[in-house]
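Researcher: Final request for today, and then I'll write up notes for the group meeting. The sequence and the SMILES for adenosine-5'-diphosphate follow.
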Amino acid sequence: MIEAILQYEFLQNAFFSGLIIGVIAPLLGVFIVVRRMSLIADALSHVTLAGIAGSLYLSQTFTMFSLLNPIYLGIVASVSGSILIERLRTLYKHYEELAIPIIMSGGIGLSAIFISLASGFNTDIMSYLFGSVSAVSRQDLWVVVAIAFVVFLFLFTFFKEMFVLSFDEEFAKASGLPAKSIHLLFMVVVALVIAASMRIVGILLVSSLITLPVAASMRVAKGFKQTILFSILFGEAAVLIGLVSAFYLNLAPGGTIVVTSIVILLIVILGKKLALKIKAERV
Amino acid sequence: MSKTIIEMKNVSFQYEYTQVLNNISFKVNEGDFLAILGPNGSGKSTLLKILLGLLKPLAGEIKLFGQPNDTFRHREWIGYVSQKSNAFNSGFPATVEEVVKSGLAKKVGLFKRMPNDAAKQVQDALKAVGMESFRGKNIGELSGGQQQRVFIARALIAKPKVLVLDEPTVGIDHENVQSFYDMLVSLNKEQNITIILVTHDVDTVSNRISHVACLNQTIHFHGYKQEFDEISQEQLDKWQGHAVRKIH
Ligand SMILES: Nc1ncnc2c1ncn2[C@@H]1O[C@H](COP(=O)(O)OP(=O)(O)O)[C@@H](O)[C@H]1O
Ligand SMILES: [Mg+2]
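Model: Predicted protein-adenosine-5'-diphosphate complex:
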């Protein structure tokens, strides 16, 4: 495998992208999960698909767009979607969660239209839906690197504010923190991470890489920083094991990564149960 | 004469259809210990939220430390402990230490790191509420009353000049309510922290506070504790909206 990575550029792209996404998706995922926004991440990934499908349609129909990397329109769609969700959430104050099905169905509807408008890119679409080891380009990798940089910059700058906002939004506002602006920035960063992750795990499975490692981590971690640390460890393990098995078994990496995450989650849940039982018996 | 730090003038507020506050005016001076009393739904929490800038009043004027509410930039001077029911997600993965430390965020300021002595400050704040031994525990493992003390520590760590508490003893068992109020008295007397307290424990607080405000959409009484003791039965009934037994 290592030899193959040294030899083939596409494998390098997939591996480095995977390693980076294995850090940033669960890292941001901790904030998404504790703020009960997992479904928003899911909705955004479907909006990203609309951007991707639109871009594939454009590149097929107009020669001037034929070289356009679909990730860019995917990013545009995802970020616009995140801002739209925020607008809808303020509009429906008492039914905030309504924003999610509205945006989600909008995204899927548009995707369906673009996909049927331009028939004939089924394998391409498959790789965007469930991820791919072979389809990640060097340009995709650079986009992932740039997005990772934005994520680290954001959290390095606003970590303490994000903690307050996630733990207790009312307290954040009462203590005079610019809660609204930081929240909006956070939504944009989430949208970027979703667009970045989709190349490896696929649109349909992005939200699981964001949430499953965090779900496992919360079973065993003590405190917030440790939750982040374990989430990244679990996420990274899932990406590595998933990518290697996808490569050898010729499977879609989205599938193998998510199944690995679920196995990790189960091991953690059962392991913790067992540990508690042993402890109880000793006493 | 101590200086006025909070002033409301003719403040009114309504949620979409319901009028909640009507023409509220009052002042709080430095060092006061004010109890805001009133039946459920009388607008107590709403009044505090307006004071804290969480809600915008429909009409009226609010001044904090002499500055209009909209342009007031030192919200870290006002520590807030919200009503338990609508507070945080109790499954949140954070230790007591992390929660208390987060109370420093505004004071430290945007783009700045937490100070090096933050751990020491956490220790002191926890000590003030008698919770030092819980600093490594996850917040979700604590009882309601213990969590409430941690939230007070989170407010105290920023060294506020005013502490605003909304029904803080809900969820604290009966024996501990007394010592809880004693703690507030010592903060008020020893550290000169002004206290604004919304509560139903009229009997328990009555010999600890300096001022009383009786709220039910409007302010039915506001003044020294001694004057409140002289309040007429008629006034009391009008405020509560029904006949009540006078208690002391
Ligand atoms: N977010 C809200 N939307 C609409 N009405 C509200 C809201 N919050 C409170 N109210 C109403 O405003 C009134 C005052 O509420 P509140 O300030 O919480 O009273 P208190 O704290 O004295 O019990 C109540 O009638 C309540 O039903
Ligand atoms: Mg209330």
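Model: Residues 4-91+161-240 of chain B form a domain with the Rossmann fold fold (CATH 3.40.50.300). Residues 174-190 of chain B form the longest helix (17 residues).
Researcher: Thanks, that's everything.
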